[in-house]
Amino acid sequence: MRGPESSDRDEIGALSANLPTDLPPPGEARERIVSALAARGLLQPPGLVRPSRIAALLAAAAALFAAGLLTGRHAPAPLSHGAPRFVLFLSSLPGESAAGEPARVDEYRKWAADLRGHGRLISGEKLRTGARLLDAQKGAGAMSAGDVSGFFVVEAADIDQAVAVARTCPHLRHGGRITIRAIAPV
Amino acid sequence: MPVERDGRGGEEDRRLVRGFLRLRDETSFSALYSRHAGVLFALASRLSGSASDGEDLLQDVWVRAAEGLPAFRWESSLRTWLCGILLRRWREVCRQRGRRLRLETGEFEDEPEARTRALEPGAFLDLESALRGLPDGYREVLVLHDVNGYTHAEIAALLEIEEGTSKSQLARGRRRLREALGAAPKREKA
Q: Does A35 touch chain B (CB under 8 A)?
């Protein structure tokens, strides 16, 4: 609701009143909050399902299975365990604004969810600005976070396939760069 | 209050809260979260001037809400109650960071870094950036009044200040914002 004191507005007030009052939080925020609530005993830990719901879940699973059989549709099979892994380092975006960030992060979240659905995503995080540097010679100190604003870890058959996956990331559409590095098996 | 006067919305909140308190499960929580997280995040990001701080505040609000919901008496709408938690938490954060808000002047004591954010006319690209550049005291009142539609009486109650202080903070905040945006000074009434 806006404007209980509309007579009290000037042009700045009117401009401010046009700002959105509802900005979707980053997608991962909900998961983090759920974890925080569960850790404090304020929410049942994920995976704890009440007996009364088990029957309904089983019925839903059976229906989904039947639907899958009927349509013949299925997601591409995930790569086998031990497949090569790659890190996609996402650059900072020029002119990144706090206002546009939630929508952008939500877009990335959907892309990541799709990738996870295909069994290719292992993890991914957005990184905060600011960093601490530990240097054997100079000791500890604050430093710039550099050019990395986030990362995804994905599975792919080889570097070319990892690049192909990275090409679908919305980060490129926003003018960002993605560096693809293979994780060395140790 | 400036949010959720819709009676049906209130009924939906009551139903969801009852479900959450009964089950304490993720599905019940997610339904509540979906209804209110956007408004809380927008307010938290603007008050703190940063999306990442906004996320932290958002988490704190939901943790406190989950703790306090059994004692919530519905004397206000759920959203107003949640926004109140957010404002109180934000002020705690300010205190913990050593920001001693002086609401009478909108300036800080003992926070040199706040002064490094001094406004430069024309330096801001948009209104959101300009808001982030305001001293916290101005920004709080301006966001609550002009963006979220709270009245001065409501702001006074939420921030525990006088209504007159809220009005003067708003006027000063708008003036600073106008300067930051490079707009012409408002012509004073004769």
A: no
pLDDT tens track for B44-58: 998 888 888 899 999
- The span from the CA of A153 to the CA of B114, in Å, is 38
Question: Which chain A residue shows the shortest CA-CA distance from B62?
Answer: A33
Nearest beta carbon to residue B174 from set A10, A95, A102: A10
Sign of CA dihedral B179, B184, B189, B190: positive
Interface size, chain A vs chain B, as Cβ–Cβ contacts under 8 Å: 135
Element (H, E) at A179: strand A178-182
| A179, pLDDT greater than 80 | yes
Nearest to A4 among B2, B38, B183 (CB): B2
In sequence order, the β-bridge partners of residue A89 are A151, A179
A16 in contact with B, Cβ within 8 Å: yes
pLDDT at B9: 64
Least confident span in A19-28, A149-158, B69-78, B174-183: B174-183
Q: Of A173-177, B34-38, B133-137, where does the model show the most confidence?
A: B34-38
What's chain B's average pLDDT?
Answer: 79
Instruction: Let me know: does B101 contact B137? Beta carbons within 8 Å.
Output: yes
Phi, psi (degrees; rounded to nearest 5) at B76:
-135, 175
Question: What is the per-residue pLDDT for A167?
Answer: 87
Q: Give the residue on B whose Cα is nearest the Cα of A12.
A: B174
Do B32 and A50 meet the contact criterion of CB atoms below 8 Å apart?
A: no
Which residue matches tokens 């525990």?
Answer: B160
At a CB cut-off of 8 Å and minimum separation 6, what does A151 contact?
Answer: A87, A88, A89, A90, A124, A125, A127
Which two structure tokens, joined as six digits, stand for B29?
């929580």
ipTM greater than 0.85, yes or no? no
- For residue B186 the two structure tokens come to 């408002």
Mutate to test the interface with A, among B3, B26, B28, B144 (most CBs of A within 10 A): B26
Q: In whole angstroms, what is the distance from residue A85 CA to residue A154 CA? A: 6
Chain A: closest CA distance from residue B70 (Å): 11
Instruction: Give this prediction's pTM.
Output: 0.56
Question: Quick check: B50 and A34 CB within 8 A?
Answer: no
Q: What's the angle, vertex CA B144, arms to CA B149 and CA B36, rounded to 5?
A: 80
